[in-house]
């Protein structure tokens, strides 16, 4: 079988054509599965292609693919490839990343494109372009190989797509827990009669107690993954600006049993606190599902670019690869760096990647990026989870399975594990049923969104933190676990700088905010008669659209009282404060509304929190101010 040697990332890939699979792009709305020439559909989305096997009978795959390409229902047909040492099918997207030698001018570059019948897609710099094959050119693998032999070309890399590993674990033959011990570990899992180690947790409940709330709805946590059940009761009311790379729309792909990973990952970070089911680390945060993980360079640019442009504060990624043949190329590195430095109005998006579950002494290659928080896993006894990859790039570890697993949300179409067969064993390894769509979960896939949720709590109390400051705080406030001898200059290859401590991280975020503002953290009481605001206030003003709901808690005649009330309310509830300026009996009055929510349910939840703290208020429809 012929092999193709191509440049990829920082090395080379040796590719061999699949003997049975091809990629097809079909025209119209016809399902490719129903075509007579298709034997079986294997993957619905890979680089924009359906990956299928063909009914080729006695003819070769090459001849059958040529025949299929002539069908009126097929727009493009391509071979599928495997890399030496890899078992994931790879498909060329049709684009080629071409780096010319520095002395090659644009006119000479255009001549190269003409020679190989390529279209220019985008000019990245004076010597770096992205081109696309046309119907008259050879396939992108051959073109890239030929380009590499051209004297004007320094490097030609065909853009390839493949599925990336998802870092959760198959449920082992252990007993499992039904309680969220990672939030607060008391040393005993009652439902299973299992002893853990008290305090071996992420101190999340302690952080909530310190904050006096569950975080802020102004913070947006993006989770890039596959298999989001956006109708899940713990997720459905939190979805914000969703995007699907496969549909290129806000219509999230659902229902494929091959893809269920995103739902449990997202839930550990942001699941709602509604008195039912489970609760995430940052239950008030908004959830931006970005569906369709992809190895493709262009898709990588799109997924991180989408998060940056659409208001993501935090980007959680529980996937990647440990195969060094698939090292990140410069454009992928740039896409992550751009989000980490230019997101959040140049404060930087906080980006997290799972270390990976192979038990290697090196981590997921995506997690090696210097702007990324690399998350490893520890267990419910504060020990190293032996599947968790190790390396100098590990930033922190967080609770996951190894001794006792996590509980997470389950997609409605999740078939569960095949371990032990049918019934509740599909989702609960101890055979004890729990009500609702939930399951046991783990791996560095579970640890990573827990840290993402902690980042959301930190930004809730101090939204001015940069991405680098968040990473620095997480590392400096982490608890050292394991043997002291495993730490060199405060860092362990297994644990990073230690197991995350949400309470200490939030406390440090608050300290830095107070230090910046030049004030103490002592709550300010509302004075009964203040004609001018005493003290120094820092605030920004922007127009609030007359849309959504909030909780109105008072009407003030003195502007000084408005400032002091706004400061106190924002500290207590970490929500936007909306002021309506109006006239009453010829005098200016100020109506103070806490929060601006798209739905009445979230406003009602805040109203209950306020009432519990002795503050009366009523639901206000902001459209009444139009």
Written overview of the protein:
This protein is α+β, with helices and mostly antiparallel strands and 626 residues long. It has 3 domains: 3-161, 2-Layer Sandwich (Alpha-Beta Plaits), CATH 3.30.70; 166-482, Rossmann fold (3-Layer(aba) Sandwich); 549-625, Sporulation related repeat (Alpha-Beta Plaits, 2-Layer Sandwich), CATH 3.30.70.1070. The protein is built from 12 helices and 28 strands. Strand 1 and strand 2 form a beta hairpin.
Keywords for this structure?
Alpha-Beta Plaits; globular; 3 domains; 26% strand; 5-stranded antiparallel sheet; Rossmann fold; 626 residues
- CATH class of the largest domain, anyone? Alpha Beta
Overall pLDDT? 88
Helix content: 10-25%
CATH architecture of the largest domain: 3-Layer(aba) Sandwich
Q: Could you say what the CATH topology of the largest domain is called?
A: Rossmann fold
Give a concise summary.
The protein is an alpha+beta fold. It contains 12 helices and 28 strands.
Task: Please specify the SSE layout and strand pairing.
Elements: E1 3-8, E2 11-26, E3 38-46, E4 49-54, H1 61-69, E5 74-83, E6 91-100, H2 106-115, E7 118-123, E8 128-133, H3 140-148, E9 153-161, E10 165-166, E11 188-189, E12 194-195, H4 204-211, E13 220-225, E14 243-244, H5 262-270, E15 286-291, H6 297-309, E16 314-317, E17 319-320, H7 330-346, E18 350-354, E19 372-378, E20 394-399, E21 406-409, E22 438-441, H8 443-461, H9 467-477, E23 487-488, E24 491-492, H10 502-517, E25 549-556, H11 559-573, E26 577-584, E27 587-597, H12 600-612, E28 618-621
Parallel strand pairs: 13-15, 13-16, 14-15, 16-18, 18-19, 19-20
Antiparallel strand pairs: 1-2, 2-4, 2-5, 3-4, 6-8, 6-9, 7-8, 10-17, 11-12, 21-22, 23-24, 25-27, 25-28, 26-27
Helix pairs in contact: 4-10, 5-8, 6-7, 8-10, 9-10
């Amino acid at each position: 079988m012929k092999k193709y040697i191509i440049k990829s990332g920082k090395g080379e890939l040796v590719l061999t054509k699949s003997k049975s699979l091809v990629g097809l792009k079909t025209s119209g709305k016809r399902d490719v599965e129903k075509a007579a020439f298709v034997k079986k559909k294997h993957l619905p989305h890979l680089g924009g292609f359906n990956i299928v096997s063909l009914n080729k009978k006695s003819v070769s795959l090459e001849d059958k693919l040529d025949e299929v390409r002539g069908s009126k229902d097929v727009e493009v047909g391509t071979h599928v490839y495997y890399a030496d040492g890899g078992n994931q099918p790879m498909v060329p997207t049709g684009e080629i990343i071409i780096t010319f030698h520095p002395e090659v001018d644009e006119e000479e570059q255009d001549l190269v494109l003409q020679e190989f019948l390529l279209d220019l897609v985008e000019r990245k710099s004076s010597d770096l372009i992205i081109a696309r094959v046309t119907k008259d050119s050879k396939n992108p693998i051959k073109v890239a190989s030929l380009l590499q032999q051209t004297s004007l070309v320094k490097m030609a890399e065909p853009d390839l797509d493949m599925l990336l590993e998802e870092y959760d674990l198959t449920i082992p033959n252990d007993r499992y827990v039904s309680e969220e011990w990672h939030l607060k570990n008391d040393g005993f899992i009652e439902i299973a009669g299992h002893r853990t180690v008290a305090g071996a947790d992420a101190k999340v409940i302690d952080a909530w107690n310190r904050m006096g709330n569950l975080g802020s709805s102004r913070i947006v946590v993006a989770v890039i993954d596959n298999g989001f059940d956006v109708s899940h009761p713990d997720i459905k009311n939190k979805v914000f600006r969703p995007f699907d790379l496969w549909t290129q729309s806000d219509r999230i792909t659902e229902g494929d049993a091959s893809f269920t990973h995103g739902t449990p990952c997202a839930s550990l970070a942001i699941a709602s606190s509604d008195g039912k089911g489970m609760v995430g680390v940052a239950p008030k945060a908004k959830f931006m599902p970005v569906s369709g993980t992809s190895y493709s360079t262009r898709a990588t640019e799109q997924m991180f670019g989408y998060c940056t442009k659409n208001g993501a504060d935090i980007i959680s990624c529980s996937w990647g690869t440990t195969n060094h043949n698939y090292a990140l190329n410069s454009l992928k590195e740039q896409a992550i760096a751009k989000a980490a430095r230019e997101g959040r109005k140049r404060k930087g998006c906080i980006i997290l990647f799972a270390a990976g579950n192979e038990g290697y002494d090196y981590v997921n290659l995506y997690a090696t990026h210097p702007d990324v928080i690399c998350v490893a896993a520890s267990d419910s006894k504060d020990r190293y989870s032996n599947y968790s990859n190790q390396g100098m790039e590990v930033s922190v570890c967080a609770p996951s399975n190894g001794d006792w697993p996590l509980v997470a949300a389950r997609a409605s179409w999740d078939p569960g594990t095949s371990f032990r067969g049918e019934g509740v064993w599909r989702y609960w390894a101890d055979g004890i049923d729990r009500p609702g769509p939930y399951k046991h979960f783990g791996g560095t896939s579970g640890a990573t969104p827990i840290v993402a949720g902690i980042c959301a709590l930190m930004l809730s109390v101090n939204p001015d933190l940069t991405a680098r400051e968040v990473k620095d705080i997480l590392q400096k406030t982490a608890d050292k676990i394991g043997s002291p001898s495993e730490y060199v200059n405060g860092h362990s290859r297994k644990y990073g700088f230690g197991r995350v401590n949400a309470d200490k991280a939030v406390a440090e975020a608050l300290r830095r905010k107070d230090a910046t503002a030049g004030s103490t953290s002592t709550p300010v009481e509302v004075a009964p008669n203040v004609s001018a605001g005493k003290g120094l206030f820092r605030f920004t003003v922007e127009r609030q659209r007359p849309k959504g709901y909030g909780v109105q808690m008072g009407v003030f005649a003195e502007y000084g009282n408005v400032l002091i009330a706004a400061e106190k309310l924002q500290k207590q509830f970490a929500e936007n404060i909306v002021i309506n300026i109006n006239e009453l009996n010829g005098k200016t009055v100020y109506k103070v509304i806490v929060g601006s929510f798209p739905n009445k349910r979230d406003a009602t939840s805040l109203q209950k929190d306020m009432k519990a703290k002795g503050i009366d208020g009523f639901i206000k429809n902001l459209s009444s101010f139009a």
